[in-house]
Amino acid sequence: MSLAIRVRCSAEVCDPAAMTTAIRRAVAESDPTVPIYAVATMEDQITDSPAVFARRYPLLLVGLFAATALVLAVVGLYGVISYAVVQRTREFGIRLALGAPSSSIRGAVLRRGAVVAAVGVLAGVPGALALTRLMRGMLYGVTPADPMTYIGGCVLLIAVALLASWIPAHWATRIEPVVALRAD
Length: 184
Description:
The chain is 70% helix and 0% strand. It is mainly alpha-helical. It has two domains: 1-48, no CATH class; 50-182, no CATH class. It starts with 19 loop residues before the first helix and ends with a helix.
């Protein structure tokens, strides 16, 4: 046997879980032999239902895979750009020895990183838009072409590309030109 109770809320307080003791007392007064167990709000009942879990589980897996793909993309992007900048340490040494300011070297590296990131974003967004149509049935509360998701992902990847360019360029321009020239 189940009992469902609807609670009317006042303007200040609306906590159905707080009514539990009053409901237990009322049931005990009407018949003390009736056991009371598994008291839960309707929100808790819906959240814990197998139907909701069956819908959330695939979404959880897709979200986990998406987060893993994002981390791999960020690490890969950082690694590639950082490696390309470190390979130019000798060039930076020559420029520094000839009197180029380190800020101009960092600016050139940042521009190149921004171009690489922009090309990647411009190539990746159409592919992502095409692939999200396959997942249309798994999305809830978000459209396949949600602009905030795409903007957030693009901004994150461009920021990582710029950071991946700036950090090695900053360190490369801080070393002595003679040491940079000897580097292979």
